[in-house]
Amino acid sequence: MTARITGLQIEGFRVIDKLNLELQPMNVLIGENGSGKSTVIEALELLRKAAALSGESFFSELYTLHGGVQMFRGTTQAATRQVKLGATVEFPNDGRYQYQLVLQVELSGAIRLVRELLSYGPGPGHTEPLRIVDRTPGNAQVFHRKAKRLERFEVGEQDLLLTTLATDSDDGVDPKVPNQAVPKLRDFLRNIRVYPPTETNPAWARLPGEPLAGLRSPVVIRPAASVDRGGSNLPNVYQRLRNRGDAPWKQTLMTLRLGLGSDLEDLVIEPMSSGGSISLALKMRGVGVVPAFALSDGQLAFLMFVGIMEIDEIDAQRGGLVALDEPDTHFHPALIGRIVSLAEEASERRTVVIATHSDRLLDALSNPVESVILFERVEGSRCEARRPNREQLERWLTRYAGLGAARADGYSSVIFTEKVGADQ
After folding, report:
1. Among 54, 62, 108, which residue's Cα sits nearest to residue 83?
2. pTM for the complete prediction?
3. 192 near 352, Cβ under 8 Å?
4. What is the fold of 1-192+320-424?
5. Residue range 9-26: average pLDDT?
6. I want to staple 278 with a disulfide (CB 3.0 to 4.6 A). Which of 83, 154, 229, 235 is the partner?
7. C-alpha gyration radius of the chain
């Protein structure tokens, strides 16, 4: 069993008023445009950044990459508006942790941190969670394990305790940190991986001066622990997968043939003549070596999807979460079932969240009643989330091949009747 994010809490963020989402190992978010699916993905990215960036960088990106005041729900005339983001994390043999971040925007457009809370439990024999970190404006407290009490901690106005208190020591233990639960949670949350739709733009489709898509470009040789957003380090990822040995590599090639065809003989890591860089190529029977530059959008997207799923298998015990926004983009419909199978297999190691418009993807799920959440826009430009009713779904599956087929024929309203923590 690995550590997992089992719950996600979002309030006041874009189209979401309030959402308390219980996460399963496999989660598929579906719904119309603007219904909140990508808002959930973005919330996961903000939680990752809270654990990965310094306070200064975190707040800078709130303005430059997340729209600043525009990410706060409500009218701009409101005196204050707040965004609340939270995650429930469960570690094997160590119980449940809850992290919450509350941001507030003033009429001036300034964003400030008004609450940061990390709690544990409740543990055996306790009725209330133990506060490990409790931060409000002008007052930051950390539970000191040895002293067994909350103690004041000096911190800058924009510094996050999650990163200020964390450590990068070799053994993960820093005697200056009063509570080792903080770096433990920091390391877990910053391991969230978020992937927007894959950009595969070929050279002929680029505007003048527009760079080549990262998936098609050579990359400097360096270690790879995961696939970078955009796939720019994919050659390094596959180099690491190849270095596992012949048997695992043959299994990787078998997986790739599911999407690239039986004519795939090998995936080639090609050194560049300039030295220090490598690129990907496919060796195809009857064709020869086809460089990444010349591969189709679908071929590149499948290479990236498999890379994301396979690289995590190397460090399976680290747990975490991988979120993919419309991963089925560029894929032939016949491939959808194969990527679902790979995602469900990966969900045995870490939580998987997929946002999609594909009803075919729903049809391929092995357990749709547990996996699927429907997002809908309702009055007031807000969203509601619903899960399938088990009895209704079983009834309609006697008439349709899958949940997606029934939904496509207009039966969402009678199947998705279980409200999910929105505005309850």
Report:
1. 62
2. 0.91
3. no
4. Rossmann fold (3.40.50)
5. 95
6. 235
7. 23
